[in-house]
C-alpha cells in the first residue's frame, strides 16, 4: 500500500510541476487548461484525495514516523493545497473545506465527554468565516454601485458597463491606441466590447478621455483580450470569483446562459429534471439521455439547445437514464460497502466516499473514463484491503 500511495503522490507532484510550468510560461493562462490531457475538476479531485490521505496518515502515524518523513508529507500537503489555490480550483477548495467540516464535527460528536471536543466544533467556523468574508468583500466591490444612483444596467467592479459611453470615441481610441477597428476580434470577442468592459472596470469613461488614462500595461491587457483589469492582477481566486459574478450579472440583467459554467449547469439541471418527470419510473435508457435533454431544451427555448450537453450532475443523469428504480439501485451500489463492511469507520474510505458523493452533484463522474477508473480503483482497493483484514471471502 505504501508503494502504491507513494507512486500516486509522486505522479501528482510531477503533474502539478507541469501545471506550474505552464502557468508561469503562458501569457494570460486559463487556469482550467494548464493541466494538459486532464479535466481540471478531475485533477482537483485527485489532489484533494492525496491531501486527505496524507493528512490522515501523518496524524495516525506521527509517533512512528521519522521527522524527515513527516516534513516530506507536510511539504506535499502544502504544495498540493497551494496548487489548488493558484489554479483557482473552487471545486478542490470547497471539497477540502467540506472534509474538514465533516471530520471536525464527527470527531467532536465521538468525544463529547472530552472538554477539548468543543475545539473541533469551532474549527469549521474558524476556517469557513475567512472565506465568507473574502467573498462578501469581493461581492460588495463588484455589485454595489460606486455611484449613489442605482440603474437597471449591468454592473462590474461597481460601475455600470453601459454608462458614460461614447461609441464613436470608443472606436476612435481603439484605432488610435491599439490599431484595431470595431470589426476586429480577439478570438470570438469584439475588441470594442473588451475595451468597453476594461475601461469600465477601472471606473473610466468610455471615450477618448478614458483611453488617455490607460497606461501601457492596460493597453497590452486589452490587446490580449482581457476585459477586466482584475484578471491581470495575478490573484487567481479573485479573478475566478469576478468571472462568476459577471456570469451571474449577465444572466440577471440580460438573460445570458451560454459561456457560464454555473448558469449553464442550472439550466441543464432544470431541463434534465423536466425530462425525468416524463419518464420517472424507468428512465429513457442509456442511448437517449442526451437527446431527451435536447428535446426538453428545444421545448423551453433554452440557449443551450444544439450543444449536445449532458446534465452535469451524476444523480440527475442516473435518474434520467434509469428512472427512480435505477437511482435506488445506484444508491445501493454506492452505500452497500459503507454499511455492510462498516467502511465509515475507515477514515481513508470516508474521505474517498465523501469526495465522490459531493463531486457528483456538479459532474457526470461516471459518464467518462477518467471518473470511472478513479472511483473503481480506490473503491476496490479499500474494500479488498478491508476484507483481507477481516479474512472475509470476496463474495461475502
UniProtKB/TrEMBL annotation:
The chain crosses the membrane at residues 43-60, 72-105, 117-139, 315-336, 348-381. The keyword Transmembrane helix applies. Pfam families: Wzy_C. It comes from the Bacteria. GO terms for cellular component: membrane. InterPro entries: O-antigen_ligase-rel_domated, WaaL-like. Its main location: membrane. The keyword Ligase applies. It is a multi-pass membrane protein. Residues 76-331 form the O-antigen ligase-related domain. Keywords: Ligase, Membrane, Transmembrane, Transmembrane helix. It is found in: Membrane. GO terms for molecular function: ligase activity. PANTHER family: LIPOPOLYSACCHARIDE BIOSYNTHESIS PROTEIN PA4999-RELATED (PTHR37422:SF13), TEICHURONIC ACID BIOSYNTHESIS PROTEIN TUAE (PTHR37422). This is O-antigen ligase family protein. It comes from Candidatus Onthomorpha intestinigallinarum.
